[in-house]
Amino acid sequence: MSEIQVNNDPDVITGHTEIISSTSIERIVTGRNAALLQIEELIQQLADISTLTSSIGGKTARDWAMRQDFRCGCWLMENVKAAMSTITCNLDRSIWRDQMQKSGMISLMDAQARKQWDNNLEGDDIPEISEANILSTFEQLHNSKADVFERGIINVFKGLSWDYKTNSPCCFGKKIIVNNLVDYNRWGFRLNGGWRRDQLADLERMLNLLDGKAIPENRHDVTARLGEHISQQRTSNIFEDEYFSIRYFQKGSAHITFKRPDLIERMNDIIAKHHPGMLAAR
């Protein structure tokens, strides 16, 4: 996909997002509708077969089509109306997630925004996959991508602890201190899960976007690399990469020193834009 730049003082490269082509949308909608039609026909066929097998003492598909050691529910063997409603919802949910990933919009979202998107998709009233819905949704996301990106930076900033003088409430400094990033016991260090880990991943994501680089997959992001470092390095409690130097301590806190002051200054410009009263304090 092509790279798109958003001019917002300062210029921010916000990734490779673009509105999905009309040809792709037509193929998605046509394929989705054809699949649902065939699924509905399959459910009716299974119901007819079950009626036949039951009439000759062979019970229904619930009995002869399911593995006995893993017998569980299957929507293909339910009432057509109820089954098609759930199957349609499940199919549309998967398509929305796939298109969000392919569009690149998910990479602009911080953990909070991604969680909200997932929660919206888990409901029963998700938008139907149609050409109009896809176009309107991704046009809206496309037009708001700069706001989504900047909100991610603000959320990371607000999530810092102000218990440490290093963490200026006015801007990102050369170093920040975070609590509860790691855990320590008699077996050594362990990287904690949860929102603090997400915050570190969000911070790396913002720096990559500002640096015009691709977002690393979850399996290779800074938290994955830090976790691997912790599990392999028994003598060193310092992790280094392109953007960070992270020193972690037995009490669970970590000192995160930034290696790219130019990118940190860009983040501070965004913070100052949203919180102009802090500019003088900087």
UniProtKB/TrEMBL annotation:
Residues 90-276 form the DUF4942 domain. It comes from the Bacteria. This is DUF4942 domain-containing protein.
